[in-house]
Protein backbone atom coordinates (compact mmCIF):
# COMPACT_ATOMS: atom_id res chain seq x y z
CA UNK A 1 0.00 0.00 0.00
CA UNK A 2 1.39 3.41 -0.91
CA UNK A 3 1.26 6.35 1.44
CA UNK A 4 -1.03 9.14 0.25
CA UNK A 5 -1.17 12.45 2.11
CA UNK A 6 -4.50 14.17 1.44
CA UNK A 7 -3.94 17.16 3.69
CA UNK A 8 -1.42 19.96 3.43
CA UNK A 9 1.32 19.50 6.02
CA UNK A 10 3.14 22.68 7.17
CA UNK A 11 6.72 23.09 6.01
CA UNK A 12 9.21 22.29 8.74
CA UNK A 13 6.96 19.85 10.59
CA UNK A 14 9.18 16.90 9.69
CA UNK A 15 12.12 18.55 11.43
CA UNK A 16 10.43 17.45 14.68
CA UNK A 17 8.24 14.53 13.59
CA UNK A 18 8.27 11.44 11.34
CA UNK A 19 5.20 10.93 9.18
CA UNK A 20 4.16 7.30 9.48
CA UNK A 21 3.18 5.25 6.44
CA UNK A 22 0.90 2.18 6.46
CA UNK A 23 3.75 -0.36 6.24
CA UNK A 24 5.45 1.12 9.32
CA UNK A 25 2.16 1.14 11.23
CA UNK A 26 1.63 -2.55 10.43
CA UNK A 27 4.95 -3.33 12.09
CA UNK A 28 3.71 -1.84 15.37
CA UNK A 29 1.78 -3.77 17.98
CA UNK A 30 -1.81 -3.06 16.97
CA UNK A 31 -3.09 -2.21 20.46
CA UNK A 32 0.11 -1.09 22.19
CA UNK A 33 2.38 0.80 19.77
CA UNK A 34 5.98 1.11 21.04
CA UNK A 35 6.14 4.92 21.06
CA UNK A 36 4.02 8.04 21.36
CA UNK A 37 1.81 8.87 18.38
CA UNK A 38 0.60 12.28 17.27
CA UNK A 39 -2.14 13.48 14.94
CA UNK A 40 -2.04 16.54 12.72
CA UNK A 41 -5.18 18.63 13.19
CA UNK A 42 -5.78 20.38 9.90
CA UNK A 43 -8.36 23.01 11.06
CA UNK A 44 -5.93 24.50 13.59
CA UNK A 45 -2.76 23.41 11.77
CA UNK A 46 -1.05 21.85 14.77
CA UNK A 47 0.06 18.52 16.21
CA UNK A 48 -1.82 16.93 19.10
CA UNK A 49 -1.21 13.79 21.15
CA UNK A 50 -3.12 10.75 19.87
CA UNK A 51 -1.62 7.88 21.87
CA UNK A 52 0.83 7.66 24.77
CA UNK A 53 3.11 4.72 25.49
CA UNK A 54 1.61 2.66 28.30
CA UNK A 55 -1.97 3.20 27.15
CA UNK A 56 -3.96 0.67 25.15
CA UNK A 57 -5.85 1.30 21.94
CA UNK A 58 -9.28 -0.24 21.52
CA UNK A 59 -10.00 -2.27 18.39
CA UNK A 60 -11.98 0.67 17.04
CA UNK A 61 -9.13 3.10 17.74
CA UNK A 62 -6.69 0.76 16.04
CA UNK A 63 -8.86 0.74 12.92
CA UNK A 64 -9.23 4.52 13.08
CA UNK A 65 -5.46 4.89 13.40
CA UNK A 66 -4.94 2.87 10.23
CA UNK A 67 -7.32 5.17 8.35
CA UNK A 68 -5.64 8.30 9.69
CA UNK A 69 -2.26 6.94 8.62
CA UNK A 70 -3.59 6.41 5.10
CA UNK A 71 -4.61 10.09 5.14
CA UNK A 72 -1.05 11.11 6.02
CA UNK A 73 -1.88 12.82 9.32
CA UNK A 74 -0.18 10.49 11.84
CA UNK A 75 3.30 11.24 13.14
CA UNK A 76 5.81 10.15 15.76
CA UNK A 77 8.24 12.52 17.43
CA UNK A 78 11.87 12.67 16.41
CA UNK A 79 12.50 12.99 20.16
CA UNK A 80 11.64 9.26 20.20
CA UNK A 81 14.32 8.60 17.58
CA UNK A 82 16.12 5.95 19.64
CA UNK A 83 12.91 3.95 20.12
CA UNK A 84 11.95 4.29 16.46
CA UNK A 85 15.42 3.28 15.30
CA UNK A 86 15.46 0.21 17.54
CA UNK A 87 12.01 -0.82 16.37
CA UNK A 88 12.86 -0.60 12.67
CA UNK A 89 16.20 -2.32 13.22
CA UNK A 90 14.30 -5.53 13.93
CA UNK A 91 12.57 -5.31 10.53
CA UNK A 92 15.34 -3.76 8.49
CA UNK A 93 13.53 -3.75 5.16
CA UNK A 94 11.28 -1.04 6.59
CA UNK A 95 14.03 1.52 5.91
CA UNK A 96 13.31 1.05 2.22
CA UNK A 97 9.69 2.06 2.80
CA UNK A 98 10.01 5.06 5.11
CA UNK A 99 10.78 8.06 2.92
CA UNK A 100 10.85 10.44 5.89
CA UNK A 101 14.02 9.16 7.53
CA UNK A 102 17.20 11.12 6.91
CA UNK A 103 20.32 9.38 5.62
CA UNK A 104 22.02 9.72 9.02
CA UNK A 105 18.98 8.20 10.75
CA UNK A 106 18.98 5.29 8.32
CA UNK A 107 22.70 4.81 8.95
CA UNK A 108 21.95 4.52 12.69
CA UNK A 109 19.39 1.82 11.96
CA UNK A 110 21.75 -0.19 9.78
CA UNK A 111 24.53 -0.02 12.37
CA UNK A 112 22.28 -1.23 15.19
CA UNK A 113 20.61 -3.97 13.15
CA UNK A 114 23.77 -5.33 11.58
CA UNK A 115 25.69 -5.29 14.87
CA UNK A 116 22.97 -7.35 16.51
CA UNK A 117 22.93 -9.70 13.54
CA UNK A 118 26.72 -10.16 13.52
CA UNK A 119 26.76 -10.83 17.26
CA UNK A 120 24.24 -13.61 16.71
CA UNK A 121 26.20 -15.08 13.83
CA UNK A 122 29.55 -15.06 15.62
CA UNK A 123 27.89 -16.72 18.62
CA UNK A 124 26.38 -19.36 16.34
CA UNK A 125 28.05 -19.43 12.88
CA UNK A 126 25.59 -21.76 11.17
CA UNK A 127 23.73 -21.52 7.87
CA UNK A 128 20.39 -20.55 9.42
CA UNK A 129 21.89 -17.51 11.15
CA UNK A 130 23.99 -16.64 8.09
CA UNK A 131 20.79 -16.48 6.02
CA UNK A 132 19.52 -13.78 8.41
CA UNK A 133 22.78 -11.86 7.99
CA UNK A 134 22.44 -12.16 4.23
CA UNK A 135 18.87 -10.82 4.32
CA UNK A 136 19.96 -7.70 6.18
CA UNK A 137 23.05 -7.13 4.02
CA UNK A 138 20.88 -7.37 0.90
CA UNK A 139 18.66 -4.64 2.35
CA UNK A 140 21.80 -2.53 2.72
CA UNK A 141 22.90 -3.10 -0.87
CA UNK A 142 19.37 -2.40 -2.09
CA UNK A 143 19.49 0.90 -0.22
CA UNK A 144 22.84 2.04 -1.67
CA UNK A 145 22.13 0.67 -5.17
CA UNK A 146 19.76 3.55 -5.84
CA UNK A 147 22.41 6.09 -4.84
CA UNK A 148 26.04 5.16 -4.17
CA UNK A 149 26.51 8.47 -2.32
CA UNK A 150 24.46 7.02 0.53
CA UNK A 151 27.52 5.00 1.53
CA UNK A 152 29.10 8.17 2.90
CA UNK A 153 26.68 8.49 5.84
CA UNK A 154 26.99 4.77 6.56
CA UNK A 155 30.79 5.04 6.72
CA UNK A 156 30.46 7.58 9.53
CA UNK A 157 28.59 5.11 11.78
CA UNK A 158 31.60 3.20 13.07
CA UNK A 159 31.94 1.67 16.52
CA UNK A 160 34.62 3.24 18.74
CA UNK A 161 35.56 0.06 20.62
CA UNK A 162 36.63 -3.31 19.26
CA UNK A 163 34.77 -6.59 19.38
CA UNK A 164 34.37 -9.19 16.67
CA UNK A 165 30.88 -7.93 15.82
CA UNK A 166 31.86 -4.25 16.01
CA UNK A 167 34.86 -4.86 13.78
CA UNK A 168 32.72 -6.75 11.27
CA UNK A 169 30.21 -3.90 11.09
CA UNK A 170 32.92 -1.24 10.82
CA UNK A 171 34.61 -3.15 8.00
CA UNK A 172 31.26 -3.72 6.28
CA UNK A 173 30.10 -0.11 6.44
CA UNK A 174 33.42 1.55 5.70
CA UNK A 175 34.42 -1.22 3.31
CA UNK A 176 31.27 -0.60 1.29
CA UNK A 177 32.27 3.05 0.90
CA UNK A 178 35.82 2.17 -0.15
CA UNK A 179 34.72 -0.66 -2.44
CA UNK A 180 32.40 1.66 -4.36
CA UNK A 181 35.08 4.35 -4.53
CA UNK A 182 37.44 1.82 -6.15
CA UNK A 183 34.96 0.92 -8.89
CA UNK A 184 34.76 2.59 -12.27
CA UNK A 185 31.91 4.94 -13.18
CA UNK A 186 30.42 2.15 -15.30
CA UNK A 187 30.40 -0.42 -12.48
CA UNK A 188 26.62 -0.28 -12.17
CA UNK A 189 26.32 -1.36 -15.83
CA UNK A 190 28.80 -4.23 -15.43
CA UNK A 191 27.37 -7.71 -15.92
CA UNK A 192 26.24 -9.14 -12.56
CA UNK A 193 27.26 -5.89 -10.81
CA UNK A 194 24.52 -6.19 -8.20
CA UNK A 195 25.49 -9.77 -7.35
CA UNK A 196 29.13 -8.74 -7.14
CA UNK A 197 28.22 -5.95 -4.73
CA UNK A 198 26.03 -8.26 -2.62
CA UNK A 199 28.69 -10.95 -2.29
CA UNK A 200 31.59 -8.52 -1.81
CA UNK A 201 29.77 -6.76 1.00
CA UNK A 202 28.95 -10.07 2.67
CA UNK A 203 32.64 -10.89 2.45
CA UNK A 204 33.60 -7.60 4.08
CA UNK A 205 31.23 -8.27 6.97
CA UNK A 206 32.34 -11.90 7.39
CA UNK A 207 36.06 -11.63 6.55
CA UNK A 208 37.11 -12.34 10.16
CA UNK A 209 34.78 -15.31 10.57
CA UNK A 210 37.69 -17.56 11.51
CA UNK A 211 38.44 -15.44 14.58
CA UNK A 212 35.50 -17.16 16.28
CA UNK A 213 37.80 -20.20 16.46
CA UNK A 214 40.47 -18.26 18.37
CA UNK A 215 39.96 -18.18 22.17
CA UNK A 216 39.02 -14.74 23.46
CA UNK A 217 41.86 -14.87 25.97
CA UNK A 218 44.25 -14.86 22.98
CA UNK A 219 42.31 -12.30 20.93
CA UNK A 220 42.24 -9.86 23.85
CA UNK A 221 45.67 -10.55 25.32
CA UNK A 222 47.47 -7.33 26.33
CA UNK A 223 50.95 -8.85 26.43
CA UNK A 224 53.05 -10.16 23.54
CA UNK A 225 51.66 -13.37 22.08
CA UNK A 226 53.56 -16.61 22.50
CA UNK A 227 54.55 -18.44 19.28
CA UNK A 228 51.73 -20.99 19.54
CA UNK A 229 49.22 -18.20 20.27
CA UNK A 230 50.40 -16.25 17.25
CA UNK A 231 49.98 -19.37 15.13
CA UNK A 232 46.38 -19.69 16.27
CA UNK A 233 45.82 -16.07 15.15
CA UNK A 234 47.46 -16.77 11.79
CA UNK A 235 45.29 -19.83 11.31
CA UNK A 236 42.08 -17.80 11.44
CA UNK A 237 42.01 -17.04 7.71
CA UNK A 238 42.03 -20.70 6.72
CA UNK A 239 39.68 -21.54 9.58
CA UNK A 240 37.25 -18.98 8.19
CA UNK A 241 37.60 -20.38 4.68
CA UNK A 242 36.81 -23.88 5.96
CA UNK A 243 33.82 -22.58 7.91
CA UNK A 244 32.39 -21.06 4.73
CA UNK A 245 32.60 -24.48 3.12
CA UNK A 246 30.99 -26.23 6.09
CA UNK A 247 27.94 -23.96 5.99
CA UNK A 248 27.82 -24.30 2.18
CA UNK A 249 28.80 -20.76 1.19
CA UNK A 250 30.68 -20.91 -2.09
CA UNK A 251 30.78 -17.34 -3.37
CA UNK A 252 34.21 -16.44 -4.76
CA UNK A 253 34.01 -12.87 -3.46
CA UNK A 254 33.42 -14.04 0.10
CA UNK A 255 36.19 -16.60 -0.12
CA UNK A 256 38.65 -13.93 -1.23
CA UNK A 257 37.73 -11.57 1.60
CA UNK A 258 38.14 -14.33 4.17
CA UNK A 259 41.32 -15.94 2.83
CA UNK A 260 43.22 -12.91 1.47
CA UNK A 261 42.72 -10.08 3.95
CA UNK A 262 46.08 -10.73 5.62
CA UNK A 263 48.06 -11.17 2.41
CA UNK A 264 50.45 -8.30 1.66
CA UNK A 265 51.75 -7.18 -1.72
CA UNK A 266 55.40 -7.83 -0.77
CA UNK A 267 54.67 -11.44 0.17
CA UNK A 268 55.04 -10.86 3.92
CA UNK A 269 51.42 -11.71 4.71
CA UNK A 270 49.63 -14.98 5.34
CA UNK A 271 48.47 -17.69 4.86
CA UNK A 272 49.82 -18.16 1.31
CA UNK A 273 52.39 -15.34 1.20
CA UNK A 274 50.88 -14.06 -2.02
CA UNK A 275 52.44 -11.03 -3.71
CA UNK A 276 51.13 -8.21 -5.87
CA UNK A 277 49.32 -9.71 -8.82
CA UNK A 278 48.41 -12.80 -6.83
CA UNK A 279 46.01 -11.02 -4.49
CA UNK A 280 42.59 -10.06 -5.85
CA UNK A 281 41.53 -6.42 -5.79
CA UNK A 282 38.79 -7.35 -3.32
CA UNK A 283 41.37 -9.09 -1.14
CA UNK A 284 43.50 -5.94 -1.20
CA UNK A 285 40.53 -3.73 -0.32
CA UNK A 286 39.56 -6.03 2.55
CA UNK A 287 43.14 -6.03 3.85
CA UNK A 288 43.24 -2.23 3.89
CA UNK A 289 39.81 -1.97 5.51
CA UNK A 290 40.62 -4.65 8.10
CA UNK A 291 43.83 -2.91 9.21
CA UNK A 292 42.31 0.58 9.13
CA UNK A 293 39.20 -0.35 11.13
CA UNK A 294 41.31 -2.19 13.70
CA UNK A 295 43.56 0.84 14.23
CA UNK A 296 40.75 3.37 14.69
CA UNK A 297 39.00 1.43 17.47
CA UNK A 298 39.97 1.09 21.10
CA UNK A 299 41.36 -2.41 21.70
CA UNK A 300 42.46 -4.03 24.95
CA UNK A 301 46.09 -3.80 23.82
CA UNK A 302 46.08 -0.49 21.91
CA UNK A 303 44.29 2.89 21.97
CA UNK A 304 42.26 4.11 19.03
CA UNK A 305 44.13 6.12 16.40
CA UNK A 306 42.83 9.19 14.60
CA UNK A 307 41.42 7.96 11.24
CA UNK A 308 43.66 10.17 9.11
CA UNK A 309 46.71 9.17 11.15
CA UNK A 310 45.80 5.50 10.69
CA UNK A 311 45.37 5.96 6.94
CA UNK A 312 48.72 7.78 6.72
CA UNK A 313 50.39 4.91 8.55
CA UNK A 314 49.05 2.52 5.92
CA UNK A 315 50.22 4.84 3.15
CA UNK A 316 53.71 5.02 4.64
CA UNK A 317 53.75 1.22 4.60
CA UNK A 318 53.36 1.07 0.81
CA UNK A 319 55.74 -1.88 0.70
CA UNK A 320 52.92 -4.00 2.15
CA UNK A 321 49.71 -2.07 1.39
CA UNK A 322 48.54 -0.98 -2.10
CA UNK A 323 49.13 2.77 -2.38
CA UNK A 324 46.31 3.34 -4.89
CA UNK A 325 43.67 1.89 -2.57
CA UNK A 326 45.05 3.69 0.49
CA UNK A 327 44.98 6.98 -1.47
CA UNK A 328 41.28 6.43 -2.10
CA UNK A 329 40.83 5.74 1.60
CA UNK A 330 42.50 9.04 2.47
CA UNK A 331 40.37 10.88 -0.08
CA UNK A 332 37.20 9.45 1.47
CA UNK A 333 38.27 10.58 4.93
CA UNK A 334 39.07 14.06 3.64
CA UNK A 335 35.61 14.30 2.10
CA UNK A 336 33.93 13.32 5.36
CA UNK A 337 34.79 16.64 6.94
Automatic annotation (TrEMBL):
It comes from the Bacteria. Residues 141-337 form the HD-GYP domain. PANTHER family: CYCLIC DI-GMP PHOSPHODIESTERASE PA4108 (PTHR43155:SF2), CYCLIC DI-GMP PHOSPHODIESTERASE PA4108-RELATED (PTHR43155). This is HD domain-containing protein. It comes from Solidesulfovibrio aerotolerans.
Amino acid sequence: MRERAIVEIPAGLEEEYYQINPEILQSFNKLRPPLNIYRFLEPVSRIASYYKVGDRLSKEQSQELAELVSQGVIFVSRADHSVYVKHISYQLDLVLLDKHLTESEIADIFQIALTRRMESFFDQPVRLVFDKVREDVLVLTEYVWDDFNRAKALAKRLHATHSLANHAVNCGLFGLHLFLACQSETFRDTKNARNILDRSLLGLFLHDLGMTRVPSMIRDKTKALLPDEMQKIRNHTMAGYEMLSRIDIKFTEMERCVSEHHERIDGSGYPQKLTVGGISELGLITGVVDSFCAMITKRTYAPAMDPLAAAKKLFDDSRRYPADIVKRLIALLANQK
